[in-house]
Amino acid sequence: MAALAATSESAATAQNWGASEWRSFPPLYTLQPVESTRLQQLKIWVDLVHLWSTEHRQSRFVLHECPVFENKAISRRLPREGIEAVAGALLLDGRAERREEQIQLYEKRPEDLALEFYEFVVNNDMLNGVYTIFELYTDSPGPFRNVDPVLVRKALDILERDHKCQVFSGTTTDDEGVKFFPVEDDKK
Fold first, then answer.
1. So what's the architecture of 2-105 in CATH?
2. Is the pLDDT of residue 14 over 60?
3. pLDDT tens digits for 133-167?
4. How many Cβ atoms sit within 10 Å of the Cβ of residue 51?
5. Per-domain residue ranges for the chain?
6. 110-187 is classed in which CATH architecture?
7. DSSP letters along the chain, please?
């Protein structure tokens, strides 16, 4: 319990513990009753789920079947209530989306990717240019390269909402286009 309570902002690396140390820590598999300790526990789980996702190259999984929530070596499994709490923490973190019993993880928050991409567009003189969305995440050296197309679209939706771009429909999703606009702050 003390280890959980002593964690800091970077939950999974607190006290120089790695994922294997946390996954071998039995109290991690019991939803903690003290709110501050539970919040730290959930931060650790968010980090562990993202690490597991990266290691296993699985950005989508069935929530209650995900092996990250069980450690057979210590005979521990996070109960259903705990898994639901982790799902809630993943959603609050902004890098996940729930689709019924499945969780879709994203490497970045859509808002962060949108800001990063718009900065890339401005710095690379791409304003007022028209591009296919497909080329942005396959051919571009920018922040969309090899990013999940769903996440790319979410980031573009944010930019469109903020009047920084306009997305054009195509005959297929591969030929949808986008045009980027300067905003008032960029014209100064």
1. Orthogonal Bundle (1.10)
2. no
3. 888 777 778 787 778 878 888 999 999 999 999 99
4. 16
5. 2-105, 110-187
6. Orthogonal Bundle (1.10)
7. -HHHHT--SSGGGGGG--HHHHHT-GGGGS--SSHHHHHHHHHHHHHHHHHHHHHHT-SEEEGGG-GGGEEGGGTEE--HHHHHHHHHHHHHHTSEEEETTEEEE-SS-HHHHHHHHHHHHHHTT-TT-EEEHHHHHHT-SSTTTT--HHHHHHHHHHHHHTTSEEEE--SSGGG-EEEE---HHHH-
